[in-house]
Amino acid sequence: MDRNERRARLGVTLRHIVLIVWCASAVFPLLWVLMIAFKDNGQIFTSPFAWPNPIVTGNFPTIFSKLNVTLGMLNSLIYSAASVILVALLSAMVGFYLAKCAKGRALSNYFTAGMMIPVQAIIVPLFINIRNMGLMNSRLGIILTYTVTELAFAVFIMTGFIRGAVPDEVIEAATIDGASPALVFFRIALPLSRTGLVTVGTFVFLHVWNEFLYAMIFLPNAALSTLNLMTFKLRGQYSSDYGLIGAGIIILVLPALVIYALFQEQVVKGLTAGAVKG
Questions:
Q1: Distance from C-alpha of 130 to C-alpha of 125, rounded to nearest angstrom
Q2: Looking at CB atoms within 10 Å, which of 52, 66, 151, 177 has the fewest?
Q3: Which residue has the higher pLDDT, 162 or 104?
Q4: What is the pTM of this model?
């Protein structure tokens, strides 16, 4: 075995070690929360990393008796689905314009800069605007909030994807045949951007499903609470049942894991296509 082969094998081995460590660091917290969900406080405090002994099965039924999990899940699903539809459509339109019609990069830079603004920096002006529009404590208000905050990232993804996935020749041919810009977008660009839309939709769904800060500020009405907010209410003022909280977290993250497992291949394809061809 010559020196180059040894270096190549060493490089492969190091990559595998790094990936194993990364996977373990990503999976361990979920497995730990799953174990906590089947423990009581006594087991959690005395042996936090040990297997439950005995297994406590009452945490999950208690969750459903203390919280309206069905309502919380329905609210989260409504907010997530509506945000996905709005963000996907708007980002595709803006991305098509930036990739195929815009002459300069001013608007593109504007959306890119929007990705760099931290959430905490816009809470106060966003709260004032939502209140002035009379949309506090409403489904429309929180959906618009999620749409606005997710749009910059989605436009960044869709611009790169459309630039590579939609050939200029096809657009030129359709335009010569008399197709309007709207027809070109809906009949040509949008179908060809299906993978990019799935990528954006998956990320937006996961972001909105897991979002907490905006929901806590803009949705004081318990009937409009997300599942995330309901899970947060499991904590006590002076003491908390951490087994119960663990069960609530498992219920919360399970739909997100299912969605990502179903669309992970399309997400990778969309990100790769946008990165390589953009």
A1: 9
A2: 177
A3: 162
A4: 0.85
